[in-house]
Amino acid sequence: MANKRMQNVDHLRFVAYSDATNLNARIAFWQLYGESRDAAFSSFFDRLESDGDTPETADILDIGCGPAHYWEWGLDHIRIPATWTATLTDISQGMLDEAKNNLSKFTRVFTFDIADVCDLKYEDESFDIVTANYMLYHASSQDKALSEISRVLKPGGRLYAKTNSGHHIVEFLDLQRKFIAGESQAQNIGVAHEAFTLENGEAMIKPHFSSVETIRDDSICKATDAQIVIDYANSMDAQLDQQGLEAEVREQITQNGHFKVTRSSGMFVAQK
Ligand SMILES: C[S@@+](CC[C@H](N)C(=O)[O-])C[C@H]1O[C@@H](n2cnc3c(N)ncnc32)[C@H](O)[C@@H]1O
Question: What distance in Å separates the CA atoms of residue 237 and residue 187, rounded to the nearest whole number?
Fold first, then answer.
C-alpha cells in the first residue's frame, strides 16, 4: 500500500517535515527500544573510515540531512576529520534551520543549502562522498535522484544510503489499517519507505554505479511505554482514531508485557 504524499515535495516540505516534530517522535522510540543513537552513528562513521580509499580531504554532500543528528554526534565524538568539508542539504527550510541550530555550538563551519535530491545544483564530479540516509524513498523519482547523485560524485566516489526493508514496522502499518480515522484518510495509509527499500533499492542503484553492497540490520523491539508507541503511530502520515489506537496499544502491553515492533533497516554502499 503506497501513500503518494510521501513523495510529494510540498507535502514533505510544509507538512511531514516542516520541522523535526514527527522525526523526533520516531527517534524517541528507536532510542529506547531499537538501535541506540550511539550504535547507529558510530557504526556509520566506522564504515566511512574503514573504506580506505576515502580521501583525507574528503568533500561530503549530505542530502536530506534533517536536523543534522549525524553531524552533531560526529563532532561531539571527534569522528569528523578537520580535513573533511560538508555541505548539508534538505528540501525543508524548517529542517535546515534545526540543523543549523543543532550545530551552532561547534566552531566548525558547514555549508547549508536547500536542495531537492532530484535537482541538485552542484557541478558534475564535485564530491567524494554523498550521504542520503532515510530519504531516497521520498524522492519524486528514485531514478532521477540516483542519476543526480552519481553525476555530482567524483569517479570512484561513494554513496552511503540508509533505508528500511519492506518488513520494517509492519505493526505500525497494521495499526493504521485498523484505526484509520475515516474513509478520507484511507489514501494516507502506508509507510514512507516503500518506494526505496533494502529489497527494491539495489536494482535502482545499479544502473548509476559500478558496484553496490547491501548491509542489513534486523531486530525485534519490545516497547513497554504505551505513549511512545502511540506517538510513533501518530507521527506517520495518516490520521488515526485515538480512542481505538490507545485501547489497542495498552491492551497488547497488558496481555504480552510489550508492544512488538519489527525493526529491519540497513544501508547501501555504492561506488561510482
Ligand atoms: C527521515 S528524515 C532523515 C533525516 C536524516 N537524513 C537522518 O537520517 O537523520 C528525511 C529527510 O529528508 C528530507 N527530504 C524529503 N524529501 C527530500 C527531497 N526530495 N530532497 C531532499 N531532501 C528531502 C526531509 O525534509 C527530511 O529532513
Answer: 10
- Count the domains in the chain: 1
Residue 45 covered by a domain:
yes
The answer to the question of residue 256 being in a domain is: no
Ligand 1 pocket, residue 148 CB under 6 Å? no
User: 18 versus 128: which is more confidently predicted?
Assistant: 128
Alpha carbon 39 to its chain's center: 16
Cα(132) to ligand 1 centroid in Å equals 8
| pLDDT tens, position by position, 135-151 | 999 999 999 999 999 99
User: To the nearest 10°, the Cα dihedral for 119, 40, 87, 214?
Assistant: -40
Question: Is residue 1 pLDDT above 60, yes or no?
Answer: no
As a whole-number percent, the residues of the chain with pLDDT over 70 amount to: 99
Flag whether 159 is in a domain: yes
Identify the CATH number of the domain in which residue 159 sits.
Answer: 3.40.50.150
Q: Is 240 contained in some domain? A: no
**CA 133 to ligand 1 centroid distance, Å:** 8
Q: Dump pLDDT digits (tens) for 229-248.
A: 999 999 998 899 999 999 99
Site to probe by mutation for ligand 1, drawn from 4, 5, 12, 44 as the one with most ligand atoms within 8 Å of Cβ, is 12
Kindly list the distances between the CA atom of residue 48 and the CA atoms of 4, 44, 102, in Å, as whole numbers in the listed order. 33, 7, 22
Domain housing 207: 4-164+188-219+263-271
